[in-house]
Amino acid sequence: MGLSAEADGRQRTVLVIEDDADIRQLLVIVLSSRGFTVHEAITGAEGQRLLAEADPQLITLDLNLPDMDGIDLCSILRARTDAHILTISARPPLLTADQCLAAGSNHFMPKPFSPRLLGAYLDQVFPREGVA
Questions:
Q1: Where do the structural domains in the chain lie, given as residue ranges?
Q2: Cβ atoms of 23 and 111 closer than 8 Å
Q3: Which has fewest Cβ within 10 Å: 9, 15, 54, 63?
Q4: How confident is the model at residue 6 (pLDDT cuts 50, 70, 90)?
Q5: 10-124 has which CATH code?
């Protein structure tokens, strides 16, 4: 079952927490093409600050941030929001996915990720109105 932000009148908003500029830009392109307003954070502290301002329906979260561990940040974010958290990381997928889910993530996607696969995932979880 998808979570249509448009159905409840809220703007489709995402908070991207990613320190790698190239990956962050790729996420912005994919998310913007799916109708999301994108807010960007490079550090965990910045992500926490933007959480209240942006009120996102989706958070993409890198685990290797310059100021804190992403799994710890995931737990902090989960305590503050019911937004869908998608962790994206180059850490070993099997162990990391379990840790992320235990910390409150909704889904884990390993890096490198396919933009097409990410787009398909977003379309399934956040269906756009008027798009079949």
A1: 10-124
A2: yes
A3: 9
A4: very low
A5: 3.40.50.2300
